[in-house]
Amino acid sequence: MSGERLKIVVAGMVAGDPRQGGATWAVLQYAEGLSALGHEVLVIEPVAPEALAPGGAVAAYFRSLRLLAGRSALLSRGGEETLGLPYGRLLDFAREADLLLNLSGLLRDERLLAAVPVRAFVDLDPGFNQVWGEQGFDLGLDRHTHCVSVGTRIGAADCPIPTLGREWIPTLPPVALAHWPLAEGPGRAWTSVGNWRSYGSPTHAGLRYGQRAHSLRDLAVLPRRSAAGFELALAIHPDETADLELLAANGWHLVDPAAVAGTPEAYAEFVRGSRGELGIAKQGYVASSSGWFSDRSACYLASGRPVVAQDTGFGAALPTGVGLLAYDDVDGAAAAVEAVEGSLAAHRRAARELAVEHLDAARILPVLLDRLAVPEPSGAPR
């Protein structure tokens, strides 16, 4: 019922791990996209109780998020203490809400969950979540009425990701285009933002779900194969000396992501100032042919910055070849970057057009709402 005005709870990580502007934007795309469609949105992030300390980094970062002012709260896990809107306001909103989009299943408060009739677990980490669920970790899926994933190929015959006996509604990452205008100029270098490692690398049915570190090591010699410059806003521990030396020896320029992309505004500026994105996926996304496509890449495309991305099977959901190019190995990455550099203006135009046609939140989110079969709002508390 995407044409009706709905009350929607969006739960996700906005401030609990501060100074990650890109992670904040991953949630803001939903909140801003739904708001632009006329829906009333409340954003909640569960955090550790100590994160609510008034003078702490989490509280300071949360208060800086002007787009969430007056419609959001950090909620103490297992309690009712909040920063932002009080718990009573959250509960009142949930009782009148039509839908919960629970990004990565972060919200587990039983009272809030039970109050909302349609509850979608939105998987942002395809393959990893399902393997952990298969290995016994409680993802909280039983608390939800629907399962959604940015792994657009989950359930395909050649995709080995376990479905856990559920139908996974595929969705591409939405981008709120009003916040991502076309960037000016050619940009300075090919860039990317991310973590060297995020967590462990599980194995399922003989397939290892590796991290971005494993993918990037295979691309180490790329700067030697291309005349283009490559800049990584990479969160990597200084103890990773062998890998840091490997990257430096091959000509990668590393910058601190907290310094250049630590707020939503800085992150957007970093993307707009780039020549294009070299998309480096977690190895697990690639090995499982998950169809994962990055919300980060969506921002680059919307800004008119071409994307050369490691192939996860996303070509089944998005057109590739101009503006967005896929690669399988270092030779393919070098060839794709060279192709873009040879016709940069055309690839910049195509990048923006692709975002408008395929990733605009005004297109993506109504389709998702229809797939979730959200009932027409009653206009009265439940």
Helix and strand arrangement:
Layout (H helix, E strand, L loop, with lengths): L6 E5 L9 H16 L3 E8 L9 H7 L8 E5 L5 E3 L2 H10 L2 E5 L6 H6 L2 E6 L4 H7 L11 E4 L18 E3 L19 E6 L7 E2 L2 E2 L3 H7 L3 H4 L4 E6 L5 H9 L3 E3 L1 H5 L2 H9 L3 E4 L3 H5 L7 H8 L4 E4 L13 E4 L2 H13 L1 H16 L1 H11 L11
Helix pairs in contact: 1-10, 12-14
Question: Please, could you describe this protein's structure?
Answer:
The protein is α/β, with parallel strands linked by helices and 382 residues long. The chain has 2 domains: 7-174 and 361-371, Rossmann fold, CATH 3.40.50; 178-359, Glycogen Phosphorylase B (Rossmann fold, 3-Layer(aba) Sandwich). It has 15 helices and 16 strands. It has helices spanning 21-36, 57-63, 87-96, 110-115, 128-134, 212-218, 222-225, 241-249, 257-261, 264-272, 283-287, 295-302, 330-342, 344-359, 361-371; strands at residues 7-11, 40-47, 72-76, 82-84, 99-103, 118-123, 146-149, 168-170, 190-195, 203-204, 207-208, 230-235, 253-255, 276-279, 307-310, 324-327.
Comma- or semicolon-separated keywords:
6-stranded parallel sheet, alpha/beta, 382 residues, Rossmann fold, 8-stranded mixed sheet, 2 domains, 16 strands
